[in-house]
Each structure stands twice: as structure tokens, then as C-alpha cells.
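Recall the central idea of this unit: under ordinary conditions, the amino acid sequence of a chain determines the structure it adopts. In this exercise we apply that idea directly, starting from the sequence alone.
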Amino acid sequence: MHLKARQGGWGIRLHSDRMPFLNCLLSALPRMIGKGSTPPLWASLARTMGDRSVFEEENEPEKRWLETFFASGSRMASEAREEIARVRALRAAAVEAAGFNSPPESILWDAPDEGGGYRLSKL
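Accordingly, the structure predicted from this sequence is:
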């Protein structure tokens, strides 16, 4: 079932094994929360995900837009945080293997977990 379709499987792959889970989540959350004049898709989830005020500049979204989501204790939030840690570890191993003493600055990798993905283009 979890094999690629060309290998006789259903083409379904576990999210825990793939970085697209994180990409999907970071793309969908701003739409669920709402941003600027865009209303949230699920306003009732504001206690779990935060509300659109997390994107206001005085709230430092580049450092904190995921703070409410991570503090919610939801399974999705804990899995997202674990995936961020896993991806950061993969990057650190790749940087080390490449022999970089100091990797280039990055708005993705230099941000705290709570600010991850902010200002990166989403689908």
C-alpha cells in the first residue's frame, strides 16, 4: 500500500517519512488562520492555531506565528514540531558532510521553530 504506484503500490506514502507534510502544513495554516483582510477558513480553530493577529508586525510573526499552534498540544502540532527538528537535523548533517564551516544565511533555517516558513512563498 505504501509503495510507489509504479512499484505495484497505491502511491500513498506516509507523511512521517516525507517533508511535503511540513510544506503542506505551513502552506495551509495561513489560510486557516486568515491573514490581513483575508478571513480565516476555520475561525473556530483560533484557540488551536491562533488568529490573524499573529501576522501583525508588532507580534513578530517571523519569530512567533506558530507559537499558539505549538502550545495547543494538538497531535498535528507535535508532529509538525518533530518534523521541523528532523528536517533541521538532516540539513545540519548535509552541511557537515559538504564541509561548510558556516552555512549561508537563510530565512528558513535561521528562524526559530515558531517562526518557520514565514515570508516564504506558499502555493
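Residues 75-98 form the longest helix (24 residues).
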